[in-house]
Structures are given as C-alpha cells and as structure tokens.
Amino acid sequence: MARLTTQEIVSELNRAFAEEVEAATRYLHLASAVRGMDRLLVEKFLRESVNETIQHAEVIGQKIRSLGHVPQLEIRVVCPAEPLTARAALRHALTFEEAALECYQDLLRKVEGDVPLEEFVRSQIAVEAEHVAQIRELLAE
Ligand SMILES: [Fe+2]
To answer: Is this model's pTM higher than 0.70 or not?
Structure first.
C-alpha cells in the first residue's frame, strides 16, 4: 500500500481528534443525564472518562503538532434532554467507544509500514480497547 502523505496523515489524525473531543463531550452530557440513585453507580466512571478522553485528544493534538500542523476541529454533537439510567448511559458510551476503536483500527491499516506512526496508533488502540472492555464488564451483557 502506498504511504500516506503527511497531509493525509494529519487529516486522519484530525478525524481521531474530533472523535475524542466528541466522545468527551458525550461523556460530559451522560454524566449529567443519569438520574436518581443510578448516579451513584456511574457518575464517577463517566466523569473520569471525560478526563481520560480529553487526554486522548491531547495526545492526538500533540502528534499533529509534531508533524508540523495545527489540529483542525469540526464537531457537531447533539445530546437529547432525556433522563438516563446507568445502564443506558453505559450503552451509549459503548457505542461511541466502539466507533473510536474502529476509527483507530482503520487508521492502523492506513499507516502500515510507517513504524513510529503504527506504534502510536497501536498504543491508542490498546488504550481504547481497555476502555471498551471496562464498559462491557460493567454492563455484564
Ligand atoms: Fe479515547
């Protein structure tokens, strides 16, 4: 497969950057949308996930800078004003975490052969896969 140009890599990384910022925003909303006693179950996890996901965005932003570019961010997030149970919030989280994982796996296929970038993407995949596994475990489905 032909190597991606730096510009192509940056646009892929911008996509990942946007996914992470979107996910952080969604976690922030989920942490506010869970009602009643269920808050005791998931609020801490959801708030930690906001911070963790912002950290992921920071790492991607840093990678983009190291390639001599500035991250471009374009997001549109719509979160409905509906109360959620802990389980429903985790199911939502699982959906967008799986999408993020898929995004990195797709990126890995594209950067094949560029060892430093491959390693970078692999480490992101490991972190995302860990998060997905954690949510699945909490859902115990
Ligand atoms: Fe992430």
So the answer is: yes
